[in-house]
Amino acid sequence: MADSPQVRIVLIDDHTLFREVLSRTLAAEPDFSVVGQFGSVDEAVELIKNQPVDLVLLDINLGVEQGGSFLARAKAAGYRGKVLVVTAGVGEREAAWLLNRGCSAIFLKNDPPAQLFDLIRNVTAGSFEIDPVSLRAVLSQLEFTAQALRKPLTPRECEVLRYVCEGLANKEIASRLEVSEHSVKSFLQQLFDKAGVRSRAQLVCVAIERYWDQLDR
Fold it and tell me: Is the pTM of this model over 0.85?
């Protein structure tokens, strides 16, 4: 493997100690090269804009921000590499949402490092191998989609909900859509009514459970 091109890897995790340990562990493999490690999405996006990266290892819980927002921002920045979520735990519906947004696979932090190495090599080589977490998520989502009764969203409601899931405030959503904040609040109220919820946090949960397929159109 030493003669093969190295897999250029970026780590995104808000736990510094975990990042450092994982970085050293990966660097010990002759076919891996860690080109950056960050605690926030912003820093990682800046690097992938300016440097070739083959794979991003992404934690979805980054303290004050959700790592899942990296998927949309990386795509907008022109990133063409793979994203592998490395997390302590994830629900089946959230896992399905991540896969639908472009995540290639999901790895749990309590699994052996050797399994992570194999998954990295398979993902970057383009091999078709679905990990257990992703498989359960896909099967669960197929069953849920077949049974769920939901009120359809308008295209504008989908746009607003997508931005809510990415963590944008009303002012930022209004700027993106070129509408007033009052209009955004009206759309949010419509979404609350359709989803049967009262808060943005509850709305995001319902979005992952019921509307994930519409949000990626």
Answer: no
